[in-house]
Amino acid sequence: MKKVNCFKCKHFHTTWNPSFPRACKAYGFKTKEMPSALVLKSTGTECLQFEPKHPDETRKRHQTSSRIDFRL
Fold first, then answer.
1. Residue 30: CA count within 13 A, CB half-sphere
2. What DSSP character marks residue 7?
3. Domain residue spans in the chain?
4. Residue range 28-67, pLDDT digits in tens
5. Which parts of the sequence are annotated with region: Disordered (predicted)?
6. φ, ψ (nearest 5 deg) of residue 57
7. How far apart are CA 11 and CA 27, in angstroms?
8. Alpha carbons 2 and 55: distance in angstroms, whole number
9. Which of 17, 42, 49, 67 is deepest in the core (most CB within 10 A)?
């Protein structure tokens, strides 16, 4: 399984608390480290709540072809 990037997850958010600057809305906790790292350390499995922030954007970006026209 590939490593979860919390910055690309819709459940990740930052807090104003300098002691706990990162948080996960799906699991409902705040932490100093990346939430996915804490989930891995606590449960022994990768984060199962990961959802991309903009799933439609990632699909569009991969499906569109280049719009550059090379005519000589």
1. 8
2. G
3. 6-63
4. 999 999 999 999 999 999 999 999 998 775 555 556 566 7
5. 51-72
6. -65, -40
7. 9
8. 18
9. 49
